Structures are given as structure tokens and as C-alpha cells.
């Protein structure tokens, strides 16, 4: 396995480290004939790994996300002579209930409460919020700990217990539409409009690597955003550039942005 050749195209240090770790595990899978499961990966990371794994001959792969069209998935790497059906599903679903509404507890509240217990972000998959009920996906190995330790989210006392995958809520999202104009499709301009911040304030987030476009970190303020791009700002949330319209008389571009709440 020529790891240097397989990772030569990767320019970001974190991307290269991720793929090199994955290649180390793939090599071990081929030698020891034992499957390996990654932590939860975002869509960009999954694509990175799949593109490299497609060039290997001794291993195969599949993903586990717990729900159809999951955003965050675990990549399972296994010997090519095995079948995916022989693999154990490493995931379990948990359901949180309590006297709260969908507006009372946000995705970030749930994540913050779980991370506050010392659980790493990479151990948590998709979070599905509903009225008085929140489902999320995690690894079987930490479910008991979470059921015992997670007693409160935000200011609400909660109950938590395992849930069957086929009873989980369908992914939904709360959002608001922002219509405005920008001087260009530069990343800092789109973020400033989408989050109601000044461009100078946004530049600090970008310089400190707190921005991702389509799940890939970037520190380029002049990155040109395209229609359909998903942009996340750490601690603030996520926006999607839904539409780019025509120019105004003042030579500004009309845009429609969806901000996820």
C-alpha cells in the first residue's frame, strides 16, 4: 500500500491525517481479517475516505448512520471476502423525553449537554428533535453511561432510554428565509448577511478556522460561495445559499439564504 501516493492530492493537514489513520486501519483489516469502525464522520470526511478506499483491493466498506439519509455516518471497513450483512451494527438510538417543546431545546443544547459529560463529538450521530421528544444516534458502548448520567438539558429535567430505529422521528428542520443583496458571493459577505453580523466580525471567525463550507474547513474570506452550498459557523449555526438572483441597479446580487434554527 503506497500511502504517500494515495494521499498526495490532499492539501489540508487534517484531511491527510484522517485518511492516513484510515489507511492504517484498512491495512490492519486486510492482515487480521477483522472489521474496523470509524467514529462518526461528516459527509465531506466520508467522501474523502471513500475516494481513497476505492483504490484498495483487499478491503470493502459500507456506512452505518442509524436512519435513512443520515448526515453523520460511521464507516465500516472490512475484508473484501466478507459481506456487509455479516457486520454488526455498532450503533444504538436513544430517546429523550420531558416537559419541553421543540422550541425549548435546540440541537446545540442536546450536544452541549452530552459533550459536558466528557463524550467526544465524534461519538454522536444525527440528532432528531420533536415536541417533547428528541432522538439521537450514538455507539452502543456508551449508551448505558448516557442513560445513567444525562439527567438535564438546558433547564429541563429529562428521561432517556433506548429506542428502536424504526420508531425514530423523521429528520425535520426549523429555518427562516433571509432575502437580501450582497456585493459579491464572497464567503464573508454571505456569512455576514446570513447571520446578521458585520464583515469585520465574520472575518475573525474565518481566520480562526471556525467556518466550514460543505463540511470542509476554510479560512479564505474570498472563497466564492455557490448556490446550494452549506455553510456552518461555529457556535452560531448553519446557513444554505438557496438562490442567486440577478443584479440590482446598484450592481449588487440578490440572494436567498436559508438559516437553520
Task: Record keyword descriptors for this entry.
Alpha-Beta Plaits, 15 strands, single chain, four-stranded antiparallel sheet, 261 residues, 3 domains, alpha+beta, Structural Genomics Hypothetical 15.5 Kd Protein In mrcA-pckA Intergenic Region, Chain A, six-stranded antiparallel sheet, 28% helix, Ribosomal Protein S8, Chain: A, domain 1
Distance between the termini: 45 Å
CATH class of the largest domain: Alpha Beta
Number of structurally distinct domains? 3
Shape: globular
CATH topology category name of the largest domain: Structural Genomics Hypothetical 15.5 Kd Protein In mrcA-pckA Intergenic Region, Chain A
What is the averaged pLDDT score?
A: 94
The fourth-level CATH homologous superfamily of the largest domain is RNA-binding S4 domain
Strand sequence of the main sheet, in spatial order?
10-15-14-13-11-12
Order of helix and strand elements from N to C terminus? HHEHEEEHEEHEEEEHHEEEEE
**Quaternary structure type:** single chain
* Portion in strands: 25-35%
Q: Spans with pLDDT under 50 lasting ≥5 residues?
A: none
| DSSP E strands, number | 15
GO molecular function, one term: RNA binding
Domain RNA-binding S4: 185-245
InterPro entries: Nucleotide-bd_a/b_plait_sf, RqcP2_RBD, S4_RNA-bd, S4_RNA-bd_sf
Pfam family, one: YlmH_RBD
What does this structure look like?
Residues 185-245 form the RNA-binding S4 domain. One of its GO terms (molecular function) is RNA binding. Keywords: RNA-binding. This is RNA-binding S4 domain-containing protein. InterPro entries: Nucleotide-bd_a/b_plait_sf, RqcP2_RBD, S4_RNA-bd, S4_RNA-bd_sf. By secondary structure, the chain is an alpha+beta fold. It folds into three domains: 3-86, Ribosomal Protein S8, Chain: A, domain 1; 91-167, 2-Layer Sandwich (Alpha-Beta Plaits), CATH 3.30.70.330; 175-260, Roll (Structural Genomics Hypothetical 15.5 Kd Protein In mrcA-pckA Intergenic Region, Chain A). It has seven helices and 15 strands. It has a six-stranded antiparallel beta sheet with strand order 10-15-14-13-11-12, with helices on one face. It has a four-stranded antiparallel beta sheet with strand order 5-6-4-9. β11 (211-213) and β12 (216-217) form a beta hairpin. α2 (13-32) packs across α3 (43-53) and α6 packs across α7. It starts with a helix and ends with a strand. The mean pLDDT is 94.
